[in-house]
């Protein structure tokens, strides 16, 4: 039974939703901030989740009053010798592979719409090329001239929707997100959105989502008119 209406295709966020990469960012960020006598806290991490890389770096530098520019902060993150290796080894989130392959096997178009950079995407996908080949299109907001504003603006999802080979209305495009900014972007695009929040996110901030799940393992495709497992 399509409890939440029927959808025709699916868009996934990347970091923290498909791949458990957020702990990698947090650990490297703590190392950089510690050099300047600053503590990278859970609250700081929550403020930057879902934003573009440039915007998140600006948030951290301003919130912690680091004596460096956002660009210098970003360069220090990306130059850490553990950064790319740790991203490449970050595991898929629980339930992800089962769901994505299920959708693919039933010919449901699936895409990725993320604020990640090409460097980040190449790192997290480097050891899973077969899995990531199941997605089309893959929109990396910072690399797309058509994306004028990143999440929480709707541009990332609207550009992604336009790149599907089949046409459908926004209300028929289901989004999976883990961040508040991502949920707001999907809502602004007129798309139903399932939030699988980080354990650090206050549940009170999840109210705009169509549905909130603890894990993708709990997703029931038939509730959105998709083939059941």
UniProtKB/TrEMBL annotation:
<protein>
    <submittedName>
        <fullName>Pseudouridine-5'-phosphatase-like isoform X1</fullName>
    </submittedName>
</protein>
<dbReference type="InterPro" id="IPR023198">
    <property type="entry name" value="PGP-like_dom2"/>
</dbReference>
<dbReference type="InterPro" id="IPR041492">
    <property type="entry name" value="HAD_2"/>
</dbReference>
<dbReference type="InterPro" id="IPR036412">
    <property type="entry name" value="HAD-like_sf"/>
</dbReference>
<dbReference type="InterPro" id="IPR023214">
    <property type="entry name" value="HAD_sf"/>
</dbReference>
<dbReference type="Pfam" id="PF13419">
    <property type="entry name" value="HAD_2"/>
</dbReference>
<dbReference type="InterPro" id="IPR006439">
    <property type="entry name" value="HAD-SF_hydro_IA"/>
</dbReference>
